[in-house]
Amino acid sequence: MADMDDDDLLEALGVEAAPNKASMHTAQQERLIAGFEDILRFVEAHGRAPQHGEDRDIFERLYAVRLDRLRGLPEARDLLAPMDTAGLLDGQAAATVNPDELDEDALLAELGIDAPAGDDDITQLRHVASFAERKAAEEIANRTRCEDFEKFQPLFESVENDLKDGRRKTLRFGRDASVLQGNFFILGGQMAYVAEVGEPIRAPNGEADARMRVIYSNGTESNLLQRSLQRALYKDETGRRITDADNGPLFGDTLEPDDIESGTIYVLQSKSDHPFVAQHRELIHKIGVTGGKVETRIAAAKDDATYLLAGVDIVATYKLAHINRTKLENLFHKIFAPAQLELTIEDRFGKPVKPREWFLVPLQAIDEAVSRIRDGSITNYIYDPKSAQLKAQK
Q1: Among 260-264, 273-277, 316-320, 325-329, whose mean pLDDT is lowest?
Q2: Percent of the chain with pLDDT over 90
Q3: 319 has a pLDDT exceeding 80
Q4: Which of 75, 186, 265, 344 would bridge with 318, disulfide CB 3.0–4.6 Å?
Q5: Contact 323, 263 (CB under 8 A)
Q6: What is the pTM of this model?
Q7: Residue 25 and residue 204: Cα distance in Å, rounded?
Q8: What angle is formed at CA 192 by the lines to CA 169 and CA 102, rounded to 5 degrees?
Q9: Residues 295, 266 contacting (CB under 8 angstroms)
Q10: What are phi and psi of 338, to 5 degrees?
Q11: Is pLDDT at 33 greater than 80 in this prediction?
């Protein structure tokens, strides 16, 4: 085959040779375009323009302020008109912003970015990061394998159990934007633990920052800046702060959403003729909490597989005020989990059922557990099924 030069090869492949074009935009115009592209991505994701409002995500509020500024710049409108398929620039700029809401400088401060002092030229949009700056931020947040993850895995397991038991909660990140050593967060669907925080450093914008070691529940870690984690949590719609464990008493002076003003812990024995139940009747107990009458709660016991399809006797009750029902029941079940009754029965329709709220526990152990829950000392004890009593944790 005859030798072909580069142009001939391109033509044979159907590729048109063309000289490389230099960028047609100034640095300032590139920033205007990058800022508007952020707004367009928001519109594509949410189906509407960004809006002002204290209840809005901080980035949406930032985009709303940015859009108002772009609408007021004739040169920006001319530059961005070909990109404005959503007609955003034709909208009206917000006449005023509620003084209780953050202005743009305050928004930027929340994001760890300050506008240069003494520079009021709004055409600069200096907070719009260049591609290189964004790439650098991504590289900082890259995760690597955590070589000593076995040290941290028990912490994640403990937090997961605390969340299930109601001792911890997850809160939307934002109202408390602090990031401290020992904090747990949820980021990108993974639990994140701030294992180490380095010495404070001064960021280019003058704000205080620090390099951190963050461990993730999937066995990876990252070495990133404190403000980088804050920004990532702000941007992640599912980003959450995990509260510290609540080891205190379950009975307080104020009511929470799941509290009942007064109620009863009840302990039941079954009248079932099941061979195992009949043999160990004095040890098998069901523990529950109700805000009404116990008698009403158990009225249909003989027709309910939860009650072993048999009548029950009330063997003990404890009147308490300001009870968080979910926390209390979860705590009882956690304490006596080693002695949970493993029994399968058939319900009225012949389907196998495993009741989960019955325990092989003597009544005196339950009575002691209630007393220790009242005074807050229960967190120092575990139930030992071999000795059938509560024992202090070592």
Answers
A1: 260-264
A2: 8
A3: no
A4: 265
A5: yes
A6: 0.37
A7: 26
A8: 70
A9: no
A10: -65, -15
A11: yes
User: 3-class secondary structure for 6-56?
Assistant: HHHHHHHCCCCCCCCCCCCCCHHHHHHHHHHHHHHHHHHHHCCCCCCCCCC
CA distance 350 to 209: 64
Question: Residue 228 corresponds to which tokens in the numbers above?
Answer: 């980088």
Query: Strand ranges (DSSP E) for the chain?
Result: 144-145, 170-172, 184-187, 190-202, 208-216, 220-225, 240-242, 259-270, 284-290, 312-324, 345-346, 352-353, 358-360, 381-384, 389-392
* Sheet order of strands, 259-270 included: 312-324, 259-270, 284-290, 358-360
Provide the mean pLDDT of the chain: 75
Region 134-147: mean pLDDT is: 62
Which pair of structure tokens corresponds to residue 119?
């520079």
Return the structure tokens found at 184: 């747990």
- Alpha-carbon 80 to chain mean position: 37
Question: Residues 136, 139, 141, 144: what is their CA dihedral angle, to the nearest 10 degrees?
Answer: -160
Q: Which residue has the higher pLDDT, 321 or 339?
A: 339
Tokens of 58: 């901080």
CB 171: neighbour CB atoms within 10 A? 11
Indicate the SS3 state at residue 132: helix
Q: Give the angle subtended at the CA of 323 by the CAs of 322 and 327, to the nearest 5°.
A: 145
Kindly state the average pLDDT of the residues 363-384.
83
The pLDDT of residue 67: 87
**Residue 215 pLDDT > 90:** yes
Contacts of 325 (CB under 8 A, 6+ apart): 258, 259, 260, 263, 289, 291
What is the distance, to the nearest Å, from the Cα of residue 1 to the centroid of all Cα atoms in its chain? 65
317 and 354 Cβ atoms separated by less than 8 Å? no
Tokens of 104: 């743009």
